Amino acid sequence: MDIKYRVYSYFVLSEGNDDYIGSEFKFDLNVKHQISDIIFTVNLSLKNDGIKQLIDNGEAEYLIHIECPYTSYRYVIKTSDTYIKKMIPEKNLNGKVSVCVFIITKKDIQNYYNKNFNKDYDNITFYLERGSVLAIGGQLNTEIIKEIEELSKVPSIFTICRCAEDTDESMRVDLDGNKIAIKLCNSSFQNYKLLSNMPSRISILHSMLLNPALIYTFNILKGCSDFEDYESRRWFKSIKYTLSKSNIALDTETLERFESSELAQKLLDYPVDRALLALADSEEIEDDI
Fold first, then answer.
1. Cβ neighbours, 10 Å, residue 145
2. One domain for residues 134 and 202
3. Angle between helices 234-244 and 260-267 (to 10 degrees)
4. Is 80:59 a contact under the CB 8 Å cutoff?
């Protein structure tokens, strides 16, 4: 999740407002890679005696939310400790992982008052329901880049789907997600589903769909002054990593030096050649029959 600050009907301790004075809630994050796990270490720091007392009394608790949008992994930790370690299998994480921390109430609290309330609102009290947010410690993001084979499998960064719009156009390409989305009209998508179940047709599909989509992608990157809009995308990182294995940097110099079609062919292991070979083999089989 990404924290989106909103207006509460009561005072909340956070960096984004002045509801409290002389108070602070923040955290440090350390991420360590092991062979098959990722260890998240969170150190919480709270500077407010009133909220600390609520935690000590069991009326409030720290909440740590860990989320990976790419894999849809979510995990919530509720604790009264300020030092937390959580081990997560690496297979559950990929790309951006966000860690957000809060302090929430564990029970309803009548007439909540804190001596560190902003003096402009002295003597004001609030009724807080169970689960109310008392403090927001912010959000820290980390990138989990898997240096394993799947990162170099360029076809895995594509998704082929039916176009949501009612259109007769056979193919569109969308770069706004973590995967390069190839959108087909209904009839083309149905034909794709049929052919995708035939192993002998995979190289042909790569040549017809993935190759032009990748050429389009490189042409878009050629027109960018920088790659800021795409650097966080899974597909961008995969292309960058795969090119680096051939000692090719994904930068403006490379895009100027190579034709988009040449880069696409290299990344997809020359799908046109493989498609033609597959067609030739199928023709020989038919002749034999």
1. 13
2. no
3. 80
4. no
Co-location of 117 and 45 in the same domain: yes
For the chain, which residues score pLDDT lower than 70? Answer: 1-6, 35, 145-155, 165-168, 199-200, 281-289
Whether residue 8 lies inside any domain: the answer is: no
pTM for the whole structure:
0.55
- 284 in the same domain as 167: yes
Rounded distance, CA 134 to CA 131, Å?
9
Note whether residue 7 is domain-resident.
Answer: no
Q: Per residue in 45-82, pLDDT tens?
A: 999 999 999 999 999 999 999 999 878 899 999 999 99
Per the structure, the count of domains in the chain is 2
Structure confidence at residue 194 (pLDDT): 84
Cβ(283)–Cβ(219) below 8 Å: no
Here the tokens at position 257 are 């030096």
pLDDT at residue 168, as a whole number: 66
In the prediction, which pLDDT does 226 show?
86
DSSP string of 68-120? Answer: ETTTTEEEEEEES-SEEEEEEEGGG--EEEEEEEEEEESS-EEEE--TTB-GG
| Dihedral pair phi/psi, residue 228, rounded to 5° | -55, -40
Domain membership of residue 15 (yes or no) is no
| pLDDT score at 77 | 96
In order, the DSSP letters of 23-63 are: -EEEEEEEEEE-SSEEEEEEEEEEE-HHHHHHHHTTSEEEE
Report the alpha-carbon distance of residue 256 to residue 242 in Å, rounded.
18
**Residue 96 domain boundaries:** 24-144
Closest of 60, 56, 75 to residue 12, by C-alpha? 60
Q: For residue 264, what are its two tokens?
A: 């696409």
